[in-house]
Amino acid sequence: MKRRIFIRTSTAALASTTLPSFSIGKPGKSANDKLNVAFIGSGGWIARQPYEQGCSEENLVAFCDVDTDRCAENMKNWRTTQPFFQDFREMFDKMHKEIDAVVISTPDHTHFAATMAAMERGIHVYTQKPLTHNVWQARTLIKAQQRYKVVTQMGNQGHAGDGIRQSVEAYRAGVIGEVSKVYCRNTGPELGGQHFANPARMPLPAMPVPAGLNWDLWQGPVAKRDYHSDYHPSKWRTFYDFGLGMLGDWGCHTLDTPVWALDLDPPTLVECLDRKDSLDGVIPAGSHIRYHFPANAKRSSVVLDWFDGPQDWSKVGRIDKFGAEHAAHLGRACWMIGEKGMIGCGTHAGVPLILPEVLHKNWQSNPPAKVIPRIAGGPFREWLRAIKGEGPEPGSNFVYGARLTEIILLGVLAQRFKTNIEWDAIAGRITNRPELNAFIKEPSREGWSYGETI
Known about the structure:
Layout: H1 3-15, E1 36-40, H2 44-52, E2 59-64, H3 68-78, E3 84-85, H4 88-95, E4 101-104, H5 111-119, E5 124-128, H6 135-148, E6 152-155, H7 162-172, E7 179-186, H8 215-219, H9 245-254, H10 256-261, E8 269-275, E9 287-293, E10 302-308, E11 318-321, E12 324-326, E13 334-338, E14 342-346, E15 349-355, H11 357-365, H12 379-388, H13 398-416, E16 421-424, E17 429-430
Parallel strand pairs: 1-2, 1-4, 2-3, 4-5, 5-6, 7-10
Antiparallel strand pairs: 7-13, 8-9, 8-16, 9-10, 11-12, 13-14, 14-15, 16-17
């Protein structure tokens, strides 16, 4: 049986497996095979992460990045002589038959195009969070996964950890009772710091394009503009055209626990209760977003508050029960408030803290059954094992990842326009501000349209 045929066959069998029936570490007929893996986004720590966490154990057959100079250190350290491309479209055109799987670590605005280009060719995909830049793209990737039957994973690493499983199992075992309120928070962005710009005006003034950077390719599907160092290499999240601010950067980590535990579907209403002023197209220094999730067959309705930036906790995010004062209690990034107690988590989920203390001690001495199988080796190895048929579909596959991302994206829209959004999830439309539906499916430059026929 030829290599690609075998991988497709094992993947088709995998797709019929019900999550989370993991088979970690079991040898199979593909156990000694190595996958041919490519990287799109090959510079800096974001590419070192997959390299160091499993992908270097496979055959790395191609690298792609729009900035050759920024990749130089990784290419030197990895001693690679494999083909290097600046345009992933060229890489796929020339090498798609030699590539089994690809890791996509680009800025948010190019996630969808690179991901779809891979899936259309039957290539398995790991895409960093947030999965997409708009809701239509997220929903289209669900359809693409169903059509192309490839193994997918979104890179919210905490989803593969033991801590989030402990939190989900504790909630589902009734340790804190029914949850109706959730608080999530992050102290950033630090405008003018390492990862976020603090522009004095918009549009940004033109600067010379650095050597080694293909600026046109970096812009991808977005309308052309002049280069500025605030866009690339590291501060693009500041600008809504390219990134999604703190909520987009951290939401897929921090909201992961409540979305999984409470089985949160898209909200019916998202409110922007507060937002610091900012230049047009630039994220604020702080905000307060409130999600309203309707009741379902498993639980009653849930209200989730997101805070970013500095906050006056004497006025917002008040808990005032179970020994906790507010959403920043004990430095936790997420609190799920139940009838009997509360579960606190870190920015990337992590080991839970349960309050009041008596509940925490009872939970430690008599923990719920471990009904969710554990992951060995982290999210990249989980994904690679699934491709080889050694384990079922990854937990943060695109069906789950797109649902989580859609929740994040609706909050970003409410923040961006300092408005309330009434969301018709069935129709996929904003009903109270119809003009904002232009951001549910954003236009793409010529040559960058994908997924239109799915």
